[in-house]
């Protein structure tokens, strides 16, 4: 089976282009024995150093003698050389996953130590070292201390086991083959390497939709969604095998579970979370799981949301629902990730999550994390941040981001999400400098990304979408990294260090998100301009603004949705002064203006342009930018390998065409409702 190496290419660097320190330190490596993670470290050193330097390192089980330099990788208690070069207290004070890298002299040789309090940290340290080598950085004067900003950094796969489809996946079928498991595909290991190389430490292997919503089940065209079956005893052997592989890379395995499992899998006639038999069922199931997978991460649950079962059916609330699962996992160190994605009972869905969850603050068990989507709607190209991040101080919260490009061009458009995620994670929730990331800092909190990989050769459908997976991991590890740093790192690892290539690809990525926002929304905060498709899980790719009057609020007199205190009340859910800023038309930032306000088409923006004219201009500008990005990509012909050049070029051709379709649909829509022509005459008048 063939597939791309993504950012772990380890292409040979010519002797002349590489700092002398690489060879001096990396020809010999003393790696401690024991834990499975150290096997992964050794394999990676062979691959990485073997590739980059053209010769595999000599691996030692004791400190090498009579060498000029060597690597020493292990925990302090296992290696005297580590203790001599790095203070034990420094290492021991680090959080799980943290590590130190430090150069020193030992027994007449130069020595580079990679050490950590846990084996998982050694894996991360090794990948960091290889990243330095691959990007051509010198390593002879290192003193690095790294620690993850948040304890849990998860990928949520929306993969449907058995039938292998991926909900909102644009890169082919699921990489997980549950029919074949417990037999392992080589690809799993390479996936684990990619994830560990950017610090991901948990993988939820199946879709949050574990059964088909009732309204759909009547449709014979759909196979059943059967993710709930993974909790069956006969699936556990498969899970055990996969979990064992991920464990080598410090990654814990988790499952999405069906709240009605005691009925679907067990023999009970209720799933009432307060029923003692239900409680006992979950406990038995957890015991059974942990017997096989002692480091099992826990359960992810979508309950009472879009047709998935939940506690409401029994007149119980989300606390009752989450806590019964939490009690079952607690003795084993597992965690419940309980999603806050609920809507349907309010005219404006934006307000519902906070109304439902904020009053429950403080009632969830310690091993429950409430997992909140970044915004109040649903992964739209740009949304305001969810008010829940500032509303549950006594609860462990997690932030759910979308790596897959459901609403941002799927496998076709180039849209780099890192700048969006920076905006979200840096958002000041209280106006006093408390960023979303600060809310995520405690034990039991974290960041989850909805996965983007599939069985395609290039993993993510679009080669440039690999950058979203890379960037997600890097940001989850350290949200303070700036977008430019992450981008440059990815490009250097993926396309090499030639300055013109690095600059061109980085610029393309950095410009892509703003362009997407413009041609898919008009850039003033409109939601849901897309096609919902006619059946379950379709589309979200083409434009179809007429479908969603309640979301964009377009009428003859104006556009936008009033979400101030006079309207649906989303703005006042923020804490002051944030609430005040959104509440007033004068202070609301232009890019979210129509999210919070319904305004006349001819309302004047700060520079005197009217709302409708700005919408026109933005749509045209967005497409212009995409044309420029395509031209920039075209300039790389001959500078990068032909296959990646060609594949991506074809994507750009389609991107330009499709962006123009978006533009034309949106501007006609704005014109039809407003009756106001484009000042620059670009918008076709009604026919
Ligand atoms: C929406 C998707 C849908 C998911 C749902 C969710 O369109 O496929 O099931 O969110 O997050 O974005 O549960």
TrEMBL record:
Domain annotation Glycosyl hydrolase family 67 catalytic: ranges: 133-459
Gene3D superfamilies per the UniProt record, alphabetical: Alpha-glucuronidase, C-terminal domain (3.90.1330.10), Chitobiase/beta-hexosaminidase domain 2-like (3.30.379.10), Glycosidases (3.20.20.80)
Domain Glycosyl hydrolase family 67 C-terminal: start-end pairs: 460-682
InterPro entries: A-glucoronidase_C_sf, GH, Glyco_hydro_67_aGlcAse_N, Glyco_hydro_67_C, Glyco_hydro_67_cat, Hex-like_dom2
GO terms, biological process: xylan catabolic process
UniProt keyword Hydrolase, yes or no: yes
Keywords (A to Z) from UniProt: Carbohydrate metabolism, Glycosidase, Hydrolase, Polysaccharide degradation, Xylan degradation
Domain Alpha glucuronidase N-terminal: 6-129
A Gene Ontology molecular function term of the record: alpha-glucuronidase activity
Keyword Hydrolase: yes
Transmembrane segments: none
Entry GO terms, CC: extracellular region
Origin superkingdom: Archaea
Matches recorded under PANTHER family: ALPHA-GLUCURONIDASE A
Family designation: Belongs to the glycosyl hydrolase 67 family.
Annotated protein name in UniProt: Alpha-glucuronidase
């Amino acid at each position: 089976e063939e597939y791309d190496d993504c950012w772990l290419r380890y292409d040979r660097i010519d002797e002349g282009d590489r700092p002398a320190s690489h060879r001096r330190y990396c020809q010999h490596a003393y790696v401690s024995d024991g834990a499975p993670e150290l096997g992964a470290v050794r394999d990676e050193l062979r691959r990485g150093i073997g590739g980059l330097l053209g010769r595999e390192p000599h691996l030692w089980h004791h400190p090498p003698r009579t060498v000029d330099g060597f690597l020493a990788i292990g925990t302090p208690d296992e290696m005297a050389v580590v203790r001599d070069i790095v203070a034990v207290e420094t290492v021991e004070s680090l959080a799980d996953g943290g590590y130190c890298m430090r150069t020193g002299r030992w027994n007449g040789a130069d020595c580079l130590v990679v050490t950590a309090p846990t084996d998982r940290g050694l894996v991360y340290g090794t990948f960091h070292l290889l990243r330095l080598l691959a990007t051509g950085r010198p390593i002879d004067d290192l003193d690095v201390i790294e620690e993850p900003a948040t304890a849990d950094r998860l990928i949520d796969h929306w993969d449907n086991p058995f039938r292998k489809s991926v909900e909102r996946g644009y890169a082919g079928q699921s990489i997980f083959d549950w029919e074949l498991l417990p037999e392992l595909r080589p690809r799993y290991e390479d996936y684990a390497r990619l994830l560990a190389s950017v610090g991901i430490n948990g993988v939820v292997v199946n879709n949050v939709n574990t059964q088909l919503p009732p309204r759909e089940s009547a449709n014979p065209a759909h196979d059943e969604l059967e993710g709930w079956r993974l909790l069956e005893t006969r699936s556990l052997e498969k899970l055990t095998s996969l979990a064992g592989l991920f464990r080598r890379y410090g990654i814990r395995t988790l499952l999405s579970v069906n709240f009605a499992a005691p009925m679907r899998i067990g023999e009970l006639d209720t799933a009432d979370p307060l029923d003692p038999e239900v409680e006992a069922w979950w406990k038995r199931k957890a015991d059974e799981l942990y017997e096989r997978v002692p480091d099992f991460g826990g359960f992810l649950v979508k309950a009472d949301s879009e047709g998935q079962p939940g506690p409401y059916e029994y007149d119980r609330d989300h606390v009752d629902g989450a806590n019964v699962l939490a009690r079952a996992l607690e003795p084993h160190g597992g965690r419940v990730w309980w999603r806050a994605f609920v809507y349907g009972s309010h005219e404006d869905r934006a307000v519902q999550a906070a109304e439902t969850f904020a009053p429950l603050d403080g009632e969830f068990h310690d091993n429950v994390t409430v997992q909140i989507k970044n915004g109040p709607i649903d992964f739209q190209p740009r949304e305001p941040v969810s008010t829940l991040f500032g509303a549950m101080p006594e609860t462990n919260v997690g932030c759910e981001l979308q790596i897959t490009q459901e609403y941002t061009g799927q496998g076709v458009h180039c849209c780099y999400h890192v700048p969006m995620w920076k905006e979200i994670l840096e958002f000041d929730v209280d106006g006093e400098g408390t960023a979303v990331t600060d809310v995520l800092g405690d034990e039991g909190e974290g960041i989850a990304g909805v996965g983007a990989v599939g069985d395609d050769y290039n993993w993510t459908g679009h080669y440039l979408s690999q950058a979203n997976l890379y960037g997600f991991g890097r940001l989850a590890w350290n949200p303070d990294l700036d977008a430019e740093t992450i981008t440059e790192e990815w490009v250097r690892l993926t396309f090499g260090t030639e300055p013109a290539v690095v600059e061109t690809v980085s610029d393309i990525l950095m410009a892509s998100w703003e362009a997407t926002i413009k041609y898919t929304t008009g850039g003033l905060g409109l939601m849901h301009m897309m096609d919902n498709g006619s059946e379950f899980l379709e589309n979200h790719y083409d434009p179809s603004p007429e479908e969603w009057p309640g979301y964009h609020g377009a009428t003859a007199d104006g556009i936008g949705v009033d979400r101030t205190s006079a309207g649906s009340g989303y703005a006042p859910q923020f804490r002051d002064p944030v609430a005040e800023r959104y509440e007033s038309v004068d202070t609301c930032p232009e890019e979210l203006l129509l999210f919070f306000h319904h305004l006349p088409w001819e309302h004047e923006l700060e520079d005197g342009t009217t709302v409708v004219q700005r919408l026109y201009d933005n749509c045209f500008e967005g497409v212009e930018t995409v044309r420029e990005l395509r031209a920039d990509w075209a300039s790389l012909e001959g500078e990068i390998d032909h296959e990646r050049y060609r594949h991506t070029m074809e994507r750009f051709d389609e991107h330009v065409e499709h962006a123009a379709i978006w533009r034309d649909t949106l501007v006609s829509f704005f014109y039809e409702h407003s009756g106001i022509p484009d000042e620059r005459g670009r918008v076709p008048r009604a026919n």
